[in-house]
Design goal:
By secondary structure, the protein is mainly α. The protein is 42% helix and 6% strand. The chain has helices at 11-15, 17-24, 43-50, 66-72, 85-98, 116-128, 162-179, 183-204, 209-215, 255-265; strands at residues 58-62, 104-109, 135-140. Helix 2 (17-24) crosses helix 10, helix 7 (162-179) packs parallel to helix 9 and helix 8 (183-204) packs antiparallel against helix 9 (209-215). The two termini are 22 Å apart.
Length: 266
């Protein structure tokens, strides 16, 4: 959780609920912002942005598929509904970037039962995050002991589908664009075709070819009809919402953390 890693110099803001409430009601109405990313648009964020430094932390986005989200992690977005997860991610990212927070996010590839439609959901959300300031690391699903998925088979690179490879390398393309803007990126891009023809296609087959070309910054018009996304065109499926309304829940069902959030947001 983000709150557990915050410097002590701002810890007192977390208990000053009146201060937070006033910040959330600047325009006369409460602004409901994502709890899934553990971010409140408040004096807490502004305190960091005043220091003119980039604040980084780790968060797990996992998937953009509402179907998969409901199946494996329905409480992750609490107090928001699973159907709101894409909006939670987009609004949370917009708030963080505006306040000089650059999250380090992970995304799971190959969750049990993941379909082409589920991967397209994640690709569409990834497209909307094209200009965000963040680092995204696609991780292969690995079953953990003593969990409900302990007996599920782990995802393997040679078994990834075309869409999963596209998602995998699009994530790393984003990272290259965010962190590198010099001649080293050009050298890296020139080395990718060499890797593909000498080793990559032997290890993983031809499915990685066009996703690798995107990583190498091959112009997007040359990749049309080969990949699902067109990064040279605006994202159309998702938009950053103006706010994310939190559903009304019974106070008795909230628990201690939920009651604190309810007091802050209301």
């Amino acid at each position: 959780m983000l709150y557990a890693t915050l410097p002590s110099k701002v810890a007192h803001y977390l208990t000053d609920l009146n201060c937070l409430r006033n910040e959330l009601r600047e325009d006369g109405q409460a602004r409901y912002v994502p709890n899934g990313l553990r971010v409140v648009e408040s004096i807490l964020l502004r305190e960091f942005s005043r220091e003119e430094i980039a604040v980084c932390y780790v968060d797990q986005l996992e998937t953009a598929s509402v179907r998969v989200f409901k199946k494996y992690m329905p409480g992750k977005a609490y107090p928001f509904r699973p159907e709101q997860w894409p909006d939670v991610v987009l609004k949370g990212m917009e708030i963080q970037n505006r306040n000089n927070w650059f999250p380090f996010c992970t995304w799971i590839v190959g969750l049990p039962g993941e379909t082409h439609a589920d991967v397209k959901d994640s690709l569409d959300l990834l497209h909307t995050l094209r200009d965000a300031r963040w680092c995204v690391v696609p991780t292969l699903f690995t079953p953990l002991e003593e969990t409900r998925l302990a007996r599920k088979e782990a995802a393997k690179l040679p078994e990834l589908t075309d869409l999963q490879w596209e998602f995998f390398f699009t994530c790393w393309r984003y990272n290259l664009d965010f962190f590198r803007h010099n001649y080293k990126q050009l050298l890296f891009s020139l080395g990718i075709p060499i890797y593909y023809f000498l080793l990559g296609r032997k290890l993983f087959g031809h499915r990685i070819k066009y996703p690798l070309w995107r990583l190498a910054h091959v112009p997007e018009p040359l990749l049309r009809r080969k990949l699902y996304l067109r990064l040279d065109r605006p994202a159309t499926r998702y938009r950053v919402p103006g706010n994310v309304p939190a559903p009304q829940v019974q106070s008795a069902a909230l628990g201690q953390e939920g009651l604190i959030l309810k007091e802050v947001f209301e």
